[in-house]
Amino acid sequence: MDIIETPARSPVDWPGLDGVPDRRHRLLAIGDVRIEVRATLPRLRFTEVTRDRLAYAPAQAIVAGTAVNLARRAAGYFRRVGVLARVGDDDYTPVIRGELRRLGLRDLLQVERGAPNGVTVMLRDAPHDGRRGVRLLVAEEQAPDRRLSEHDVRRAAAEIGRADVLFLDGYALLSPVSRSALRRAALIARERGTLIAFDLVPHDIDARLPAAEVLPLLRLADVVISEAPTLARLFQRPATMTGSAEVRALVPALDRIVEGRPLWLLRFGATSLEHVLAHQRDGLLLEYPTGYGADVERAGFGDRLAAGELYWWLARRSAR
User: Fold this and answer.
1) Residue pair 218/170 in contact by the 8 Å Cβ criterion
2) N or C: the chain end with fewer CB closer than 10 Å?
3) Could you tell me which residue ranges the Carbohydrate kinase PfkB domain spans (predicted)?
């Protein structure tokens, strides 16, 4: 096994988390695209809200969702980045398409006629006892992304085949319709020789789906990104994963359960974002800090990290 320990070069060292001047490769992200309202309550904690309350706080509305969030960061590394998602047909649709154009992303959106776009509300309350505020994420349950279909995916088969890497995430597994679409996209990618990266979210997916519904995507993936405690709970292993030793103890179980040689990028630490163990059966074993801490904005950090890791991974493959 090729065992590499820090301070050897890691994705955080190179290419880093802020993009590269020499953008290469092609990435296609499939996921959800929504309008998201974000607000931070600097002086109010959720536990203090016992009746109706007006709070003035910094707030913004942005085009977000798993696909566009990752694509926005990936555009700083990859020469060509596309977004495939099912969206609604309302006044927000041109706003969404305009944002993709502004970011230089290839628009593969499938518009569902007569349907409203999905809306997400993200609230974070005030810090307390030296800890970051708690995040409350409210996502519209019947948004168009839950109806992404196999037909939508087949229409984009040529784009999947032209990509170097297809990026998928676990939110699509929560609906039977989009779950089938996700699996179809992975099978098309496998047939066309496109590498598959799978982000295992939401972080409580183990409470929403049985492992049997998640395993097919894990077995098709070339890269799996996950918080280590999420995988531990999914496969009914001890879920205390704040330290390196606990995460390394999880690795043999992952190799037994998931056939093949996916590259596991396992996040761990106090908030499951401070460190990564990169592992591949009979290959790489690399542990590195991400640079995340109390003074770093959490929103978007995971996408910055993932985009840099995917570029690093493709560069390592190309150098062989």
Assistant:
1) no
2) C
3) 61-253
What's the rounded Cα separation, in Å, for the pair 210 and 228?
17
Containing 55, the helix (H) or strand (E) segment is none
Residue 183 in contact with residue 216, Cβ under 8 Å?
A: yes
pLDDT digits (tens, 9 = 90+) for 209-241: 999 999 999 999 999 999 999 999 999 987 777
pTM over 0.85: yes
Sequence-ordered list of residues with C-beta below 8 angstroms from that of 88, at least 6 positions apart, any chain: 111, 112, 115, 116, 117, 118, 143, 144
Q: Which residues contact residue 158 at a Cβ distance below 8 angstroms, ignoring those fewer than 6 apart?
A: none
d(CA 81, CA 170): 20
Residue range 163-201, pLDDT digits in tens: 999 999 999 999 999 999 999 999 999 999 999 999 999
The CA-based diameter of the chain, rounded to the nearest angstrom, is: 61
Q: Is the peptide bond preceding residue 7 cis, with omega within 30 degrees of 0?
A: yes
Taking CA atoms, 217 is separated from 20, 220, 255, 261, in Å, by 30, 5, 15, 13
N-term to C-term CA, the chain: 16
Contact by Cβ (8 Å): 119, 36 = yes
